Automatic annotation (TrEMBL):
The keyword Nucleotide-binding applies. It comes from the Bacteria. Coiled coil: none annotated. This is ABC transporter-like protein. Keywords: ATP-binding, Nucleotide-binding, Transport. Pfam families: ABC_tran (PF00005). GO terms for molecular function: ATP binding; ATP hydrolysis activity; transmembrane transporter activity.
Length: 261
C-alpha cells in the first residue's frame, strides 16, 4: 500500500504507534479491542453503549455482529470503522494503535485500511459506476491512469464489467450494492466492514451479495458484517453476539445461532 500514499499521508502513518507483531503468526490479528468502553451522557442519563469490550478478529475471518436493538452494534461498528473514538480502552487496527489518533489521521487510516458497505449504498447519483469506484483512489493519491484500470478491474470482479458507464439510477438495487462493494475493495483494504448490507435488498439479491462476500472472504479478505438478519449472519464463519454493550458470545458458529435467537 505504501507506494500509493502521498508523501504527507506516508509521514502521518510513520508517526503512528505500532503494535508489536508476532512474526510467526499465520493468522495476524486485524482487529484488537482492549477494554473498550463508550459512554454517552452523564449522571441520570448516562448510557454505557460499549462496556469494557475485549475482542480480536484475525485476518481472513468472516464475522457477523448481532444483538438486539440498542445492544451496541452500531457503536461498535463506528469504533471498528474508526468513525468514532472510545471513551476508554485501546483499539489496534492492523497493528496500528488508532485509539489516540487525530481526525485527520483517522481519515487516512480509514481510506487505506477499511472498505465500507452500507445498507443504502451511498453512491453519488451524478457519477457513473466507474467514477464512484474511482473516488476513494483520488483520496489515496493514486495516479489517474491507474485509477481507471483498478476501478474497471474491481467492477469486473463484482460482475459489473458491462455496466461501468451506468449511473446508479440505471442500476438495480443489487447492482448498486455491487458497485458499493467494488468501491469498498478498490483500495485493497485489510478489512471489509458492512452495516446491514442487504437490508434494502430482496431475498434473491441478498443471496447474490452474500455469495460475493463469501468469494471475497475465500480470497483472503477479512469481512465484518453488522446485521439483524439470521440469514446474513449464517453466511459468516463466526457470530459475535452483543447484549447491553457487552460481548455475550464471541465465537458462535452459524449452527449455534438458533440457540440464541
Ligand atoms: N449519540 C448517542 N447519544 C446517546 N446515546 C446513544 C448515542 N448513540 C447510541 N446511544 C445509545 O447507546 C446504546 C447502543 O446504541 P447502538 O446504536 O450502538 O445500538 P444498536 O445495537 O446498533 O441498535 P440498533 O440495532 O437499533 O441499530 C443505546 O442505548 C443507544 O440509545
Amino acid at each position: 500500500m505504501a507506494q500509493f500514499m502521498t508523501p504527507e499521508k506516508s509521514s502521518l502513518i510513520k508517526n503512528i504507534t505500532h503494535f508489536t507483531p508476532n512474526v510467526n503468526d499465520y493468522h495476524p490479528v486485524i482487529i484488537r479491542l482492549e477494554e473498550i468502553s463508550k459512554v454517552y451522557g452523564q449522571g441520570d442519563t448516562v448510557v454505557h453503549a460499549l462496556n469494557n469490550i475485549n475482542l480480536t478478529i484475525e485476518k481472513s475471518e468472516y464475522c457477523a455482529i448481532m444483538g438486539a436493538s440498542g445492544s451496541g452494534k452500531s457503536t461498535l461498528m463506528n469504533m471498528i470503522g474508526c468513525l468514532d473514538s472510545p471513551t476508554s480502552g485501546r483499539y489496534y487496527l492492523d497493528k496500528i494503535d488508532v485509539s489516540g489518533l487525530s481526525e485527520t489521521e483517522l481519515a487516512t487510516v480509514r481510506n487505506q485500511k477499511i472498505g465500507f458497505v452500507f445498507q443504502q449504498f451511498h453512491l453519488l447519483p451524478q457519477m457513473t459506476a466507474l467514477e464512484n469506484v474511482i473516488l476513494p483512489m483520488v483520496y489515496a493519491g493514486i495516479s489517474p491512469s491507474e485509477r481507471r484500470d483498478r476501478a474497471t478491474e474491481a467492477l469486473e470482479r463484482v460482475g459489473l464489467g458491462h455496466r461501468i458507464n451506468n449511473k446508479p439510477n440505471q442500476l438495480s438495487g443489487g447492482q448498486q450494492q455491487r458497485v458499493a462493494v467494488a468501491r469498498a475493495i478498490v483500495n485493497q483494504p485489510v478489512l471489509l466492514l458492512a452495516d446491514e448490507p442487504t437490508g434494502a435488498l430482496d431475498s434473491q439479491t441478498t443471496q447474490e451479495i452474500l455469495d460475493l462476500f463469501t468469494e471475497l472472504n475465500q480470497s483472503g479478505m477479512t469481512v465484518v458484517v453488522v446485521t439483524h438478519e439470521a440469514e446474513v449472519a449464517r453466511n459468516s464463519g463466526r457470530i459475535i453476539w452483543f447484549r447491553d454493550g457487552q460481548v455475550i458470545y464471541s465465537h458462535l458458529s452459524p449452527d449455534e445461532l438458533h440457540s440464541v435467537i
